[in-house]
C-alpha cells in the first residue's frame, strides 16, 4: 500500500512539475516575442503616417502647419523618421559596432550609426542598425525600433535629420544576409546611400535584414 501511495505521489509531482515547466516556457516565449507582436499590432491597427509631411519644428512654426498633419523628428541633430512604419528615433553617432557593450548601451537610447560610415548627405553609405546579435532576449530588447523595416518596399521614404538639415532617402533594395557578412557596411563610396540593418526573422538573431536606400536628388548637396 505504501509503495502504491508513493508511486501515486511521485506521478502527481512529475505531472505538476511538467505543467509548471510548460507554463514557464510559454510565459518566457510570450515575453520574448511580445515586442514583435506589439509592433505588428500597432502597424496593423494604427493609421500610416505616410500621408504626413516630415518637418523640423522650425518648418512647422514658419509654415503654421497643423501638428496632426506633420511628423517632427525626436532629434534634429541626428534622427530618423520612417513614416510608413511610424518609426521616429534618435540616432547615436559613431558607435563601435564591434564592441557589444558599447553598441548595446547606444541601442538603449535609439538607433546606432556604425563607426566609419558616412554621415547623411555625404558620399558613401550611412549605416544604421538596431540589434544586439547576442541572444533572443537581448535581440528583442534592442531591436524594437526596426522590427517593421521588412514592410518597406522600393520607393518608400526614409528621412534623416543631421545638424538641423533634412535628408530624404528612398528605398531601392531589401535583402537578407548572414550575420558575418560585412561588405555592406561601407557600400559604394561613389554614391550617397543609406542602409538599415536589423536581426531577422524578427525576434531572432539568425540572419540580418538590410534595407538600402539612396539620397533623393532634390536634397541639397553638402
Molecular structure report:
The protein is of the alpha/beta class and 222 residues long. It has 2 domains: 45 residues; 141 residues, Sortase (Sortase, Chain: A), CATH 2.40.260.10. The protein is 30% helix and 29% strand. An 8-stranded mixed barrel has the order 3-4-5-6-9-10-8-7. Strands 1-2 form a two-stranded parallel ribbon. Helix 1 packs parallel to helix 4. It is globular. About 2% of the residues have low confidence.
Number of helices, counting only DSSP H or I runs of 4 residues or more? 4
Percent range of helical residues? 25-40%
C-alpha-based Rg, rounded: 22 Å
Distance between the termini: 89 Å
Give the structure's gist in a few sentences.
With 222 residues, the protein is an alpha/beta fold. It contains four helices and ten strands. 30% of the residues lie in helices and 29% in strands.
Give a topology summary.
Layout: H1 2-45, E1 53-54, H2 57-62, E2 70-71, E3 78-82, E4 87-95, H3 100-107, E5 111-114, E6 124-129, H4 136-143, E7 157-162, E8 165-177, E9 192-200, E10 207-215
Helix pairs in contact: 1-4
List keywords for this structure.
about 220 residues; alpha/beta; 4 helices; about 30% helix; 2 domains; two-stranded parallel ribbon; Sortase, Chain: A; about 30% strand; globular
Amino acid at each position: 500500500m505504501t509503495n502504491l501511495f508513493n508511486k501515486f505521489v511521485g506521478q502527481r509531482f512529475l505531472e505538476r512539475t511538467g505543467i509548471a515547466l510548460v507554463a514557464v516556457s510559454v510565459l518566457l516565449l510570450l515575453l520574448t516575442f511580445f515586442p514583435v507582436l506589439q509592433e505588428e499590432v500597432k502597424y496593423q491597427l494604427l493609421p500610416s503616417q505616410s500621408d504626413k509631411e516630415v518637418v523640423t519644428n522650425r518648418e512647422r512654426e514658419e509654415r503654421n502647419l497643423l501638428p496632426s498633419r506633420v511628423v517632427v523628428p525626436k532629434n534634429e541633430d541626428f534622427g530618423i523618421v520612417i513614416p510608413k512604419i511610424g518609426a521616429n528615433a534618435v540616432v547615436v553617432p559613431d558607435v563601435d559596432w564591434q564592441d557589444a557593450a558599447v553598441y548595446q548601451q547606444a541601442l538603449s537610447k535609439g538607433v546606432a550609426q556604425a563607426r566609419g560610415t558616412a554621415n547623411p548627405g555625404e558620399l558613401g553609405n550611412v549605416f544604421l542598425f538596431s540589434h544586439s546579435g547576442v541572444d533572443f532576449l537581448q535581440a528583442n530588447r534592442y531591436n524594437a525600433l526596426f522590427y517593421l523595416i521588412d514592410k518597406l518596399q522600393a520607393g518608400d521614404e526614409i528621412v534623416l535629420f543631421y545638424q538641423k538639415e533634412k535628408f530624404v532617402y528612398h528605398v531601392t533594395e531589401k535583402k537578407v544576409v548572414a550575420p558575418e557578412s560585412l561588405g555592406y557596411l561601407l557600400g559604394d563610396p561613389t554614391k550617397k546611400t543609406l542602409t538599415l540593418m536589423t536581426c531577422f526573422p524578427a525576434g531572432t538573431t539568425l540572419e540580418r535584414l538590410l534595407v538600402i536606400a539612396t539620397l533623393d536628388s532634390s536634397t541639397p548637396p553638402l
